[in-house]
Amino acid sequence: MEHRSPEAPAIDLDARLTRDETFRFACGPHVPCFTECCGKLDLALTPYDVLRLRRRLGMSSEEFLDAHTILRRRTAHGFPEVMLRMDPAAGKRCPFVTPEGCSVYEDRPGACRIYPLGRAATMDAPGKPAREFFFTVREGHCRGFEEIKEWTVGEWVDDQGFEDYAAFSDLLMELYVIKSRRAGMNLTQQHLQMFLMSCYDLEKFREFVVKSGFLKKFALRPGLAADLKRDDLALLKFAFRWLKFALFQEPTLMVKPAAMAKAKKRR
Ligand code: SF4
Ligand code: SF4
In angstroms, what is the span from residue 200 Cα to ligand 1's centroid? Predict the structure, then answer.
């Protein structure tokens, strides 16, 4: 689920909306509550959110993570969550909100895009398409629901540029699903570090892939190694493939026969 938790939301998970269903809403500088929703909230960032935001701000992943995030370690799924660091002195306001609105608007996180809706998704099994539904998040101060503009959920998703965010969010969810199916499995410190490095610190992950002998060990499709060296999106998608292999021994990567033979000799 895209994770944006206002302090007192009215979320009706039973009132599930499909992409064809409608709701009335409009937002912009004309509403009296403009930017009120950008405070008093906890906002978990997906790896794709971090990639978009840190590129927007001209920062490396490490710089962005140090400056703007804190880690939430205790979670139901066992993976740490990267939370946007709010300003406690200003009522937990988002660091990117200004009187004119969101200063990172074109690259705002997925949960901010889909708001005032939320999206929940489940997966019957790893690799299966996600089953999703939407719901409204009605906060007392939000006056956007009083407007007459009508949207289908699908129109809102398109208008807000949410589709890529949903796709990357589902890749993250797939890790949670695999973990939930491994009864009794605890993630070690090494697992957690690998998770954070691979999908949240892409420069370090790229160094690991390019400089550690990784490319000699694994059989990759022609052209993929070159893509991983220069294309952040390809690298992020690959990070999830790698994590499924490294954390859960899923058959998402193939060790080259020569590397396998070498490993056997060493035993
Ligand atoms: S209408 Fe709702 S979403 Fe828009 S600024 Fe007001 S509180 Fe935020
Ligand atoms: S990123 Fe932008 S839209 Fe999201 S909470 Fe911050 S200021 Fe508001």
Answer: 29
Mean pLDDT calculated for residue range 54-73: 97
Say how many C-beta atoms besides its own lie within 10 A of residue 117's C-beta: 21
Residues 6+ positions from 217 with CB-CB distance below 8 Å: 255, 256, 259
Q: How many angstroms does the Cα of residue 37 sit away from the middle of ligand 1?
A: 6
Q: What confidence score (pLDDT) does residue 14 get?
A: 62
Among protein residues, the one whose CA lies closest to atom 4 of ligand 2: 112
The rounded distance, in Å, linking the Cα atoms of 125 and 24 is: 34
Question: Omega before 251 cis (within 30°)?
Answer: no
Q: Where are the alpha helices (DSSP H) in 182-231?
A: 189-200, 202-211, 214-217, 224-230
Residue 262 pLDDT more than 80? Answer: no
Ligand 2 neighbours by CB, cut-off 6 Å: 38, 94, 96-97, 102, 104, 108-109, 112
What ranges do the domains of the chain cover? Answer: 4-175, 187-266
Contacts 24+ apart (CB under 8 A), 251-254: 253/218, 253/219, 254/218, 254/219
211 pLDDT higher than 80: yes
pLDDT digit string (tens) for 119-163? 999 888 888 889 999 999 999 999 999 999 999 999 999 999 999
pLDDT of residue 240 exceeding 90, the answer is yes
Whether residue 1 contacts residue 119, with contact meaning beta carbons closer than 8 Å, is answered with yes
